[in-house]
Design a protein that fits this description.
The chain is an alpha/beta fold and 249 residues long. It is built from 8 helices and 8 strands. It has an 8-stranded mixed β-sheet with strand order 4-1-2-5-3-6-7-8. The two termini are 29 Å apart.
Length: 249
């Protein structure tokens, strides 16, 4: 599996504005030029992209850069261009789940928030996101550029035959009302307006319906005692096509 994406920078921040997992054929490795041909036109995308994974936020590094050093402090100069990215730990489980099943196909990866930031769950940042999303559809200026930071939640059209939600179980509707509304809009649009095949992993004791009602979808980056159970459930989900909702214990 290879990972390709486009990084942008603005106001001393870095954003991942698009990215794709390429499911290599046996003994195959492609470069960015070859990958671009696979998504060159809408017809190509429709043919080659089998589905979409929605995560919470990206932690990404271009293939030749240092993962432990802020990208703006390195010699990277290919912003706004498609580049190959390292496959970080939080994507490895998808690599294992889809191995040898969809060779030569692509899965689009998108994020609730495009900011590349390890501490994105800090309350100070979430308060800024919530304030931004409160005025997102107004004429007021948002703190983070709305076009490169956020998804157009009312008009989003995920590609492929499925949408796999893995943005985690931390969206708090009481503390961050507008983040919740933003995420709810994305989920409901995918499932009810676009009639996409929606899949996710949920905690068995909470029930599938509860997970949908409160948009709590297990994250593959979870490091708690449930990590192995979540990973096994993701693998089980992708034994089917389109993937299915599965519980973890």
């Amino acid at each position: 599996m290879q990972y390709f994406g486009v990084l942008e920078t603005k106001y001393e921040e870095v954003f991942l504005t698009s990215s794709y997992l390429y499911l290599n054929k046996e003994d195959e490795e492609i470069d960015t030029k070859q990958f671009k041909q696979l998504i060159k036109t809408n017809k190509d995308k429709k043919k080659n992209i089998i589905g979409t994974i929605i995560l919470y936020s990206p932690i990404v590094t271009p293939i030749d850069c240092d993962s432990n050093t802020f990208l703006l402090n390195q010699d990277f100069d290919k912003y706004d261009e498609l580049v190959e990215l390292k496959i970080e730990n939080y994507l490895t489980i998808f690599k294992q789940a889809m191995k040898n099943k969809f060779e030569g196909k692509i899965v689009e990866v998108i994020n609730l928030f495009n900011l590349v930031e390890k501490n994105i769950d800090a309350s100070s940042l979430l308060m800024k996101f919530d304030s931004d999303l409160e005025i997102y559809y107004s004429q007021q200026n948002t703190e983070f550029d709305r076009d490169i930071m956020y998804l157009d939640c009312k008009n989003i059209i995920p590609k492929g035959k499925f949408v796999f939600f893995a943005w985690g179980e931390k969206i708090n509707p009481k503390e961050f009302i507008y983040i919740n509304n933003y995420a709810q809009t994305i989920f409901r649009r995918c499932k009810f307006e676009l009639n996409k095949n929606v899949a996710f992993i949920y905690k068995k004791e909470k029930t599938l319906q509860w997970a949908e009602d409160f948009i709590q979808f297990a994250s593959i980056s979870q490091t708690s005692k449930y990590k192995n159970s979540i990973n096994n459930s993701i693998k089980k989900s992708f034994e089917n096509f389109p993937p299915t909702c599965e519980a973890y214990e």
